[in-house]
Amino acid sequence: MILAIDGPAASGKGTLAKRLARHYGLRHLDTGLLYRAVAAALLDAGHPADDRARAIAAAKAIDPARFDENSLKRYEVGEAASVVSAVPEVRAALFDFQQAFAAGPPGAVLDGRDIGTVICPGADVKIFVTASPEERARRRVLEMRGRGQSVNESEVLADILRRDERDRSRAAAPLVQAPDAHLLDTTQLDIEGSFRAALAIVEKARK
């Protein structure tokens, strides 16, 4: 079974995907980490996120076994990831890896922005997770403060709105709900409520 979980930044799709993977005994891939790793490779070497040639080279040399998830979750890396992910050659370089991961037994849950539309268009179940920009900014602020970072919520909201626009308007694999994806708005839901709602969607689809 392949589950495709898509949605904008801080919508809760990653947490949801992990819970679903554990529940069904499937492997999980946060595809956003792939793009974050490309972005981190540039930033850590002192290069700007819009250096296309270096971004493409970094994508071709990606090694998930060496990922430091805490380092990749840095706020500036997330912002840079939104830039490198708009480069068609970067997306192409990571395409085969994601498809191969999804095809491996016993199945997988992948979360990202183009899983149901590009990576796994034939997924057994597709869920598009969303929430209001204000709620997503609130969640991101809590997450960052939990890591000891000092942040301004209005600035985070502005960054999320800019990121949404980049993700929706990019030429390569823009963020869009697949026609056969189930919409899950988590604005008014906590983690448990979101999980129960997603579980109901999956179970109904399986039947």
Please tag this protein with its features.
single chain; 207 residues; alpha/beta; Rossmann fold; five-stranded parallel beta sheet; 10 helices; 56% helix
Q: Give the number of helices.
A: 10
CATH class: Alpha Beta
- Quote the average pLDDT: 93
Largest beta-sheet characterization:
5 strands, parallel
What is the fourth-level CATH superfamily?
A: P-loop containing nucleotide triphosphate hydrolases
The helix fraction, in percent, is 55-70%
* Tally of DSSP β-strands: 5
Going by CATH, the architecture would be 3-Layer(aba) Sandwich
- Spatial separation of the terminal alpha carbons: 13 Å
Task: Name the helix and strand elements from N-terminus to C-terminus, one letter apiece.
Answer: EHEHHHHHEHEHHEH
Q: Rounded to an integer, what's the Rg over CA atoms?
A: 16 Å
How are the elements arranged and paired?
Blueprint: E1 2-6, H1 13-24, E2 27-30, H2 32-44, H3 52-60, H4 69-72, H5 75-84, H6 88-103, E3 108-112, H7 115-119, E4 125-130, H8 133-146, H9 153-169, E5 182-185, H10 191-206
Parallel strand pairs: 1-3, 1-4, 2-3, 4-5
Tell me what the structure shows.
It is a single chain. With 207 residues, the chain is an alpha/beta fold. The chain is 56% helix and 12% strand. It has one domain (2-206): P-loop containing nucleotide triphosphate hydrolases (Rossmann fold). It has helices spanning 13-24, 32-44, 52-60, 69-72, 75-84, 88-103, 115-119, 133-146, 153-169, 191-206; strands at residues 2-6, 27-30, 108-112, 125-130, 182-185. A 5-stranded parallel beta sheet has the order 2-3-1-4-5, with helices on both faces. Helix 2 (32-44) crosses helix 5 and helix 8 (133-146) packs across helix 9. The mean pLDDT is 93. It has 10 helices and 5 strands; from the N terminus they run βαβαααααβαβααβα.
